[in-house]
Amino acid sequence: MLHKSLLKNKKIQEENLRHIAIIMDGNGRWSERKGKIRTLGHKEGFKTAKKIVKFAVKRNIKILTLYAFSKENWKRPKIEIMGLMELFFFALKNEINNLNKYNIRLKIIGEKSFFNKKLQNYIYKAEKKTLKNSGLILNIAANYSGRWDIIQATKRIIQAVQKGILDIKKIQEQNFSQYLSTSELSPVDLVIRTGGEKRISNFLLWQIAYSELYFTDILWPDFNQSTFQEAIDYFFTRERRFGRIKK
Length: 247
Description:
By secondary structure, this protein is α/β, with parallel strands linked by helices. The chain has one domain: Decaprenyl diphosphate synthase-like (Undecaprenyl pyrophosphate synthetase, 3-Layer(aba) Sandwich), CATH 3.40.1180. It is 45% helix and 14% strand. The chain has nine helices and six strands, in the order αβααβααβαβααββα. It has helices at 4-16, 27-33, 38-58, 78-94, 96-101, 117-129, 146-162, 173-177, 225-237, and strands spanning 19-23, 63-70, 105-109, 137-144, 190-193, 212-215. It has a six-stranded parallel sheet, sandwiched between helices. The longest helix has 21 residues, at 38-58. It starts with a helix and ends in a 10-residue tail after the last helix.
């Protein structure tokens, strides 16, 4: 049996890991290595995402943010984009029961107005149907950009100042965060990127200022609960000082 002090320390560590964000990279390369079309990799990646969400619920993670589609991804071949949009439709239409089963609240972050009206309606219905769930908050970043997020927050702040709601002299980091797409959520504690690349690709630029970063060569369709746990274990080895010196 673990000593009481060790159990207490473990509990403190787990409480410090509230928000995990994942850059799900490598779907296309996974398919290409198997001689398949890239769309197949995205379908396999979707299956992986479902498993990872369930594991996050099991580990009592409070917030999970998945980078599904960036604003830059529109530059990809049209056939691949069509496949991604179809997969998005499928997920929104067919996964609501599972989300409610596991008490998961769904939130889509990104410039949703860019999607067609049908997809926007699916997004609205999915968010509404899970709104009262009190477990894991699942953010799906779709048509998202960290720079866009900061710009739209700045615009909202300007409007608030113009209307007299906000005093420009009182704008601080804390209230700036309230105007981001992740308002009212805690900052990201751990960023995981699969696929071997070591960059953040315009993802949650404000929210990951003090996040721990974990990179793995594993392609997203091959990512599993074991490799997810390895990333979590890595987080617990880190000493997060937030600018302070070691005691």
